[in-house]
Amino acid sequence: MSGIEALADHKRRRIEELIARTADAGGVSLVRDAGRRLLRNPTAIVGGTIIVLFLIVAIFAPLVAPHDPVQRFPELIKDLTVDTIPGATAGHPLGSDPLGRDFASRMIFGARQTLFVGVLATLIGLLLGVLLGAVAGAVGGWIDVLIMRFTDVMLALPSLLLAITLVALASRSTQWTVIIAVAVVNVPIFARLLRGSMLAQRGSDHVLAARALGVKPRNIVLRHMLPNSLTAVIVQATLTFAVAILDAAALSFLGLGDPDINRAEWGLMLGVDGVRYFEVRPELAYFPALAIIVVALGFTLLGEAIREALDPKNRR
Amino acid sequence: MPLLDVRDLSVVFQRKGAEPVRAADGVSFTVEPGQTVGLVGESGCGKSVTSLAIMGLLPRRGNRVTGEVLFDDTDLLTLRPSDLRDRRGRDIGMIFQDPLSSLNPVIPLGVQVAEVLERHRGRSRQAALREARGLLDAVGIPDPARRLKEFPHQLSGGMRQRALIAIALACKPRLLIADEPTTALDVTIQAQILTLLKELVDDSGTALVMITHDLGVVAGLCDTVNVMYAGKVVERAGRHQLFGEPRHPYTEGLLQSVPRLDVDRGGRLHQIRGSVTDNIPWSAGCAFAPRCDRVIDDCIGDTVPLEPTFRGGALRCTNPVPTEVPA
């Protein structure tokens, strides 16, 4: 008998208890660690709350909204004159718009449209950008030069101007032209970002080590370079949501979006009724504008917080 | 027949608007099957460049590699890239200096060990992972089943280097090139890793090229040692020979620069004058001449040739350190 075997029972139990308590509980993965830091960050909580509320409203719009957003209530605009657009009445908490449609319902369904456009535009932009950036960073040479000069040209133009040009190129504007235009505007940003981190990865030790093991070039790019380069792009994507929402709203505001007047879209509501009736019913402008600002703010706050949480400098 | 026969290997880095740099300059050495050969020298002498050139891992642009690298009588330098990739990791393994940055940070350890087995042995992911467990066990990683699922940052430095060794030896290569495998580790771990390496190469009959600046590593491990200076081998000798009777003044200087416990503490540590950048080109004589204590007129003039010594080594010096036994 020697060591802790020789100790009295309760002493030995105490030692085992202490060992168990300090035992390596397994490392903490990057994602879990980042998640924990996000939950402690007030910025993330504010941004996250806004986005969650926005998502709930968007997803459950038919349940939340008191009415169908395109249904017209003739009794509300029976004796309509310019300065008598109905305000709040029973059953219509925000009143109606000049066509007699329930304004609150239109705001709620607008969240759906905004989410749809924002997510799709960001995803398409992300996909194309990652593709271009990965090719440029992995292949290098003249292909890299070609892609990067192309992105330079696109970045030289103001993004909204570029989006307007793209929409104008389409013969007939639908919501898809808006989505594509906003997506394309964001492609060079993603491409550039990814190419930069791919280049850094190309010179890294673990890529050299993988090459020393005879790993095929395709697998080196897909398994070793790309996954290590994506962090910056993912963060950029959350920030791009905000920009995409703003850009899409701006295009609708300028009358370049889907001309369908039944579509509830915040930018369109702001641009048509909000501007036209601003002096008599400023709420028609205030609410859509406020909604756009708050949602964009939510995504920006969350994006910033994610960036901070994923930053290895903040790891302990 | 030697397993690896490096003949007159030169690596020249081209630079825009400047003289090209001869990072490795006519390096020749051989490795017999199962032998451990050291490549020693200070930073910038061309050790790592030589090893990367052997593996064909230097960037394609901006440099010129000449000479021959015969592995099993095949010249690796003229091999098609895809054939060379088939050999890397299967016939020749490599271990790098920094174990953390040499592992992919976003992939669990097990997958990284499995990758090489999938690549060269055609194993399925499942089979490879099972095999990986045994490999980690063999390099002394405790609880390998759990470690397989962990990420590199969750392992300690020593464990990471053990994992790298497991990966490098997964396909039982006949040659292992270790580029300063212990530099990033603390001293106690260094000893463990070296012991492990020695055991593994002895057991499997793998030949080992040990690249290091640490003479202690050489003393413990190598059969033959090549001392490099400014891109050239300046002295080659058996281990006991080299430590017992260094002939090149540079080798002697290196040995004297190692701190010792058994000499008086008041004395200054020996150092070699100047730095590795204070060279003259080899074409104008001996590159080490400006820093050498034994420099004579003959050191300046023509390239000093590497000449065989009567003890089976080789020496590149016009005024070598005299030996006890007259040559």
From TrEMBL, chain A:
<feature type="transmembrane region" description="Helical">
    <location>
        <begin position="115"/>
        <end position="143"/>
    </location>
</feature>
<feature type="domain" description="ABC transmembrane type-1">
    <location>
        <begin position="111"/>
        <end position="303"/>
    </location>
</feature>
<dbReference type="Pfam" id="PF12911">
    <property type="entry name" value="OppC_N"/>
</dbReference>
<keyword id="KW-1003">Cell membrane</keyword>
<protein>
    <submittedName>
        <fullName>ABC transporter permease</fullName>
    </submittedName>
</protein>
<feature type="transmembrane region" description="Helical">
    <location>
        <begin position="233"/>
        <end position="256"/>
    </location>
</feature>
<feature type="transmembrane region" description="Helical">
    <location>
        <begin position="285"/>
        <end position="306"/>
    </location>
</feature>
<dbReference type="Pfam" id="PF00528">
    <property type="entry name" value="BPD_transp_1"/>
</dbReference>
<feature type="transmembrane region" description="Helical">
    <location>
        <begin position="150"/>
        <end position="170"/>
    </location>
</feature>
<keyword id="KW-0812">Transmembrane</keyword>
<keyword id="KW-1133">Transmembrane helix</keyword>
<dbReference type="InterPro" id="IPR035906">
    <property type="entry name" value="MetI-like_sf"/>
</dbReference>
<keyword id="KW-0813">Transport</keyword>
<dbReference type="InterPro" id="IPR000515">
    <property type="entry name" value="MetI-like"/>
</dbReference>
<dbReference type="InterPro" id="IPR050366">
    <property type="entry name" value="BP-dependent_transpt_permease"/>
</dbReference>
<feature type="transmembrane region" description="Helical">
    <location>
        <begin position="176"/>
        <end position="194"/>
    </location>
</feature>
<dbReference type="InterPro" id="IPR025966">
    <property type="entry name" value="OppC_N"/>
</dbReference>
<comment type="similarity">
    <text>Belongs to the binding-protein-dependent transport system permease family.</text>
</comment>
<keyword id="KW-0472">Membrane</keyword>
<feature type="transmembrane region" description="Helical">
    <location>
        <begin position="44"/>
        <end position="65"/>
    </location>
</feature>
From TrEMBL, chain B:
<dbReference type="GO" id="GO:0005524">
    <property type="term" value="F:ATP binding"/>
</dbReference>
<keyword id="KW-1003">Cell membrane</keyword>
<comment type="similarity">
    <text>Belongs to the ABC transporter superfamily.</text>
</comment>
<dbReference type="Pfam" id="PF00005">
    <property type="entry name" value="ABC_tran"/>
</dbReference>
<dbReference type="Pfam" id="PF08352">
    <property type="entry name" value="oligo_HPY"/>
</dbReference>
<dbReference type="InterPro" id="IPR013563">
    <property type="entry name" value="Oligopep_ABC_C"/>
</dbReference>
<keyword id="KW-0813">Transport</keyword>
<dbReference type="InterPro" id="IPR003593">
    <property type="entry name" value="AAA+_ATPase"/>
</dbReference>
<dbReference type="InterPro" id="IPR003439">
    <property type="entry name" value="ABC_transporter-like_ATP-bd"/>
</dbReference>
<keyword id="KW-0067">ATP-binding</keyword>
<dbReference type="InterPro" id="IPR017871">
    <property type="entry name" value="ABC_transporter-like_CS"/>
</dbReference>
<keyword id="KW-0547">Nucleotide-binding</keyword>
<dbReference type="InterPro" id="IPR050388">
    <property type="entry name" value="ABC_Ni/Peptide_Import"/>
</dbReference>
<keyword id="KW-0472">Membrane</keyword>
<dbReference type="InterPro" id="IPR027417">
    <property type="entry name" value="P-loop_NTPase"/>
</dbReference>
<feature type="domain" description="ABC transporter">
    <location>
        <begin position="6"/>
        <end position="255"/>
    </location>
</feature>
<protein>
    <submittedName>
        <fullName>Dipeptide/oligopeptide/nickel ABC transporter ATP-binding protein</fullName>
    </submittedName>
</protein>
